[in-house]
Every structure is written in structure tokens, then in C-alpha cells.
Amino acid sequence: MILTGKEILKRLGNDIQIEPYDANLLNPNSYNLRLHEDLLVYSEFPLDMKKPNPVQTLKIPEEGLLLEPGTLYLGRTIEFTETHNLVPMLEGRSSIGRLGMFVHITAGFGDVGFKGFWTLEIQVTHPLRVYAGVQICQIFYHTVEGEISEYKSGKYQANQGIQPSLLYKDFEKK
Fold it and tell me: How many helices and strands (H and E) does the chain possess?
């Protein structure tokens, strides 16, 4: 089951934390999250799954930043979220999708217990100017059935910014 907006509001401060919270961003069954001004792009190719890949930081100026097709932009939400006893999920807003922008490639599924900023894997189908602070995606919450084990991974938990892939750490464990 997906929580309604009224249920999200009731659970704020307990199972759900959203900082900063703005009542105007609450929807009938989700909450809109906004795009931070910083983006990352990978700066050396080819990328290697077994190694940290260098990135370059871009800042979205007030007049916007033109995104180009064929480039993966890593962004993040302005909002820091924390979720307990529920599964948080992200989906791009339809208004964003109708401009040819993908907000996440595969990582819209969160884990029970995740806390942090959401890293967005952004691609565009044609050149598109973006602006910091735009309501880019929505978070919604599924109820959980069964015994809960909370997410505790050291890779992305409690992150403080945009997270490039840390897949290489999986190879270090072997």
C-alpha cells in the first residue's frame, strides 16, 4: 500500500523525516523534492566498475544550466530524508518527464531505514535548461509486511552530498 499525503503528514517526525519540509510540496500520495544547485559529471572515460571514477562539479547558475543528451548528470535533492518502517521510492514528476528528462535511471527504490540526500541520475533526450530549486521528483512510501531489517550499508547511508557510484567497494570485499 502507498501512503496518502495525509498519512505522510501524520508520520512526519516519526517514521518520516523531511528536512527542510514545506507543506506546499505535499501531494495526495507523495511529496515533491527539489533539485540542489550542484551536479556532478564523470570526467574521464571509460568508466571502470572496480575503481573510483573522477568527477567534476557543476553549479547551476541563476540563469539555469543547459543539459545535453549523452551525458549523465548526478544531482541531489535539497531535502534530506529519513524513513523507518516504510519503503521510500522516488519517481520523476510527469511535468519533468514531458520535457524529456529522466530523473533516475535505475535507483528510484529506497530501503527501509535509509537516511540521506537522494542522488539523481539525470539524462535528457534533447538539450534542456534546468534550474536549481525546481520540484524535480516525488517521494512516496510503501508499507512493509514482515519483519523489518533496516538499511545499514556504509556506502550511501547518511550521505552529505551527491554520491557517484561506489560499486568499486563491492569488489574490495572479495
Answer: 3, 11
Q: Is 121 a catalytic residue?
A: yes
pTM of the model: 0.94
The Cα diameter of the chain in Å comes to: 48
pLDDT tens, position by position, 147-172: 888 877 767 887 888 989 999 988 88
Catalytic residue among 7, 19, 121, 145: 121
> What would the grid cell of residue 91 be?
519517481
Sign of the CA dihedral 123, 109, 138, 94? positive
- Tell the burial category of 174 from Cβ atoms under 10 Å away from its Cβ (0-12, 13-18, 19+): exposed
pLDDT tens across 90-109, in order? 999 999 999 999 998 887 77
